[in-house]
C-alpha cells in the first residue's frame, strides 16, 4: 500500500526553496504562490492521493487563505492543479443545498452577532444567506455553483461531497440536483457520510432516480461509508482500523447492505502512519485509504 502522506511530505520538503524564494508577496498572495510552488513539484501520481479539505483554506479561518467551503477555496485549489476538493453540504429552509461545515454560520460570519448567524441552516433561506456575509465578504455558495465552477476549471476538477450525520433529508435535494443537471455528476468523485443511515438513504434514492438512467456508468461517483479511528467517541460514527482483522462478511454487509438496500462502493478508512495491513485481498477491494488532506 502506498503511503500518500510520505509522498506529500517529500514534496513539501522540495517546495521549501520555492517558498523561501517568494518575495514581495504578503497575505493571500504569498499563500497562493506557496500553493502554486507546491503543485509544481508534486508528482502526478501523488495528486491522485491529495484532497483539499473544505477547499484551499486556513483551519484557523485566517484570511491569508480563502475561507473554507467558499467558491474561492475551490477555484484557487483547482486552478493550482489540485484534483479533489472536499466539501460539506447543508439544506436550507426551501431544500436548497449550500456549503457549510457547522450547524450555523456563527464561526464564519462577518458579524457573528447577526441574528441569522446563530440560526440553524435548516431555518435559513437563500435570501437570508445572501444577506449574511462571511468574514471575507463572500456568501455561502450553493452546491450547484461550486459544481458549475468545477466544470469551468476542467475535467480534472472533482468534488468530494460529505453529507453530515443525521442529515438524511439531504438525499432528496441532492438527487434532485443530479436529476435536473446530470452534466454536473461528472464533477463529483465521491458522496460520503460518517452516518451509515444517511449514506444508505442516499444510495437507495440515487439508485432509483439517477443510476443507469441519466448518467453514464463511468461518471457515477463512489458512494462511501466514512469510518473513524478507534476512540473517536462519537456514537454515529463507525470506528474501524485498517490494522484490525475485521471479518470479511462484516465489511461486505456494510458495503452490500441487507435485503432491499442499495450497495455502497466501499469504506473510507483514515490513514494511520506506520500501520501494516493484515486484511485479506477480498477485504482490500472495499477499502479507500484516506488521502493526505491539507
Topology of helices and strands:
Blueprint: H1 4-21, H2 27-41, H3 44-47, E1 50-52, H4 71-80, E2 84-91, E3 97-99, H5 126-131, H6 143-153, E4 158-163, H7 171-180, E5 188-193, H8 196-209, E6 222-228, E7 238-239, H9 248-256, E8 266-269, H10 281-284, E9 287-289, E10 292-293
Parallel strand pairs: 1-2, 1-10, 2-4, 4-5, 5-6, 6-7, 6-8, 8-9
Antiparallel strand pairs: 2-3
Description:
The protein is of the alpha/beta class. The chain has a single domain (4-293), classed as TIM Barrel (Alpha-Beta Barrel). The chain has 10 helices and 10 strands. Strands 1, 2, 3, 4, 5, 6, 7, 8, 9 and 10 form a 10-stranded mixed beta sheet that branches. Helix 1 (4-21) crosses helix 2, helix 4 packs parallel to helix 6 and helix 7 (171-180) runs parallel beside helix 8. It is globular, with a radius of gyration of 19 Å. Residues 1-25 have low confidence and may be disordered.
